[in-house]
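Quick one from the shared queue. A colleague (R.T.) flagged LppX_LprAFG lipoprotein as missing a structural entry in our internal table.

Convert sequence to structure tokens.
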Amino acid sequence: MRRTAPGVAAVVCVGLVFLAGCGNDAGASTAPVGGNEQPPAPADAAVPAAAGGLAGLAVVPDGFQKGVAGEPAQVTGPFTRQSFVDTLSASPAEDLALLLNAGCKEGYQTFRLSTDRRKRVTVQLFKAASASKARDLQKGFWAQDEHTKPFAVPGVPGALTDAQTGVAGVTGQIEAVAEASITVGSMVAEITVSQSGTLEKTPVPDIKLATTVVKLQYQRLTTKSG
């Protein structure tokens, strides 16, 4: 998705069980990914003032570390409309117009990074002024990129999905991305699961994981958001 810099997202574990969140995510729902303990996560980079209860609406994987402090795309925390445009958007002018039109003043991002730094999961939440504005925002964001390989997410109406593999920037690395966008009421949720690799070890989009996260995020928003 174009809202953040390349390299957002991933986990490689199936059969996740999502539990009530705790700790620095201020209520975000978390999921254990495996039995191995992870090293302490680095502190989050500075984020704007609190964005109400949006942190408690985000679903994030447990067992993965937080991102690199000082890297805006790897921050976990709230954002305002302006701070999103200034630090997270890859298309500032276009995104600002979409956010203004949707009456979106705040949002929340969660980011998790595997210990080998190849696998990432990002969830971004946007609160629009109404359900119809949320759908407009979803479609506007989605239209910024070409999407050619949708995958099904049973039980989640209106989900926009795509899975792609391609060269990531000038690094020559191959990136496999499975992404989705959903709306529930006035909320828009964008989920990206990605993994980097090489031509010799070409990664594959983790559609199964992305589908799991999308379903759980939909359930979370359905039961918690207004």
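Confidence is low (pLDDT under 50) at residues 5-24, 31-52.
Residues 23-35+49-224 form one domain.
Added to the table.
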